[in-house]
Amino acid sequence: MKTSEKAALKRTCEQLYVDMDMNVEECAKAISVNESTIYRWVKSGNWNEKKTETQAIEKQIQINLRKALNQGLKSYAADPSNKDLQSLVSLLKQFKETNKPSQAYKDNIIKFIDRTTDFFLEKGMETVVKEFKKCVLELAEYLLYRS
User: Are the beta carbons of 75 and 85 closer than 8 angstroms?
Assistant: First the structure.
């Protein structure tokens, strides 16, 4: 395997592991790489720390957003004529709405799935494509419709 192909597999695996929260076994099946190789990549690339940090940040953002929205709504309920509070509540609701997956995000997910399938086919990994197709609908649904 060429160095560039290995680097591409490693990047794909990191995205699956860190961003999509797949475990080592799932990643190994998805990209047809030995689990021991992926464990080495996880350790050398500090992927567990990246995953934990990303999850913690996302969770804290959601918590802070809910707190701010609740506080804004309480204040607004106490004084609904206050234009500043109306604006604040409107901004918080808008921010919450903009955190939903965009159409561009959804399009990128579909492109990724298509390109991954093409990659496997080009490398003669038909059995991997079959396994990938089994889980791709569930994966796409998770990525496209998670809140």
Answer: yes
Q: Is 46 left (phi over 0), alpha (psi -120 to 50) or beta?
A: left
Q: For residue 108, give the nearest of 43, 19, 4 by alpha carbon.
A: 19
Model pTM score: 0.47
Domain spans of the chain, in order of start = 1-45, 54-99, 101-147
- Rounded Cα distance, 101 and 117, in Å: 23
Res 147 pLDDT > 50: no
In terms of pLDDT, which residue wins out, 11 or 59?
11
77: exposed, middle or buried (C-beta count within 10 Å: 0-12, 13-18, 19+)? exposed
Q: Cβ(47)–Cβ(14) under 8 Å? A: yes
Contact 40, 53 (CB under 8 A): no
Type of residue at 67 = K
